[in-house]
């Protein structure tokens, strides 16, 4: 079981680092589906795991001067307030409702990602071949 948990964490770290997505998109479904952890607990565990992984990512990206601490601090103000609000809100939701909301969110992110990638591809083609309208 410990090896499975470490491998899930490894995959979440690799995928979140490569794609810039929060590890929660990977960790929460993995914990719920593969480890049988409840949705509420999986979300709490995921939030705790984000702390060291985010610090590692910031440390590495800051070496390349890719971290704007001013913007990050401003975002953090709203994010902390939102996290406190949502942590209270999810306690009033059943596990089934929370799973449904989380699943719909993942689907929405996936659709948005596909549409954005497709639009980017079309823009690149238009720049490369401006006379082919």
Automatic annotation (TrEMBL):
InterPro entries: TM_pro_TauE-like, TSUP/Inactive_protease-like. The chain crosses the membrane at residues 7-35, 41-59, 71-90, 96-115. It is found in: Membrane. The keyword Lipid metabolism does not apply. Keywords: Membrane, Transmembrane, Transmembrane helix. It is a multi-pass membrane protein. One of its GO terms (cellular component) is membrane. PANTHER family: MEMBRANE TRANSPORTER PROTEIN MJ0441-RELATED, MEMBRANE TRANSPORTER PROTEIN YJNA-RELATED. This is Membrane transporter protein YfcA. It comes from bioreactor metagenome.
């Amino acid at each position: 079981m410990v090896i499975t948990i470490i491998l899930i964490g490894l995959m979440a770290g690799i995928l979140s680092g490569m794609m810039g997505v929060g590890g929660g998109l990977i960790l929460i479904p993995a914990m719920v589906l593969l480890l049988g952890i409840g949705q509420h607990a999986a979300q709490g565990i995921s939030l705790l795991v984000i702390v060291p992984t985010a610090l590692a990512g910031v440390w590495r990206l800051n070496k390349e001067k890719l971290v704007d601490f001013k913007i990050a601090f401003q975002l953090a103000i709203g994010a902390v307030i939102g996290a406190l609000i949502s942590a209270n809100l999810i306690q009033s939701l059943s596990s089934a409702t929370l799973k449904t909301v989380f699943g719909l969110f993942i689907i929405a992110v996936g659709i948005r990602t596909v549409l954005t990638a497709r639009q980017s591809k079309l823009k690149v083609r238009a720049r490369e071949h401006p006379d082919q309208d």
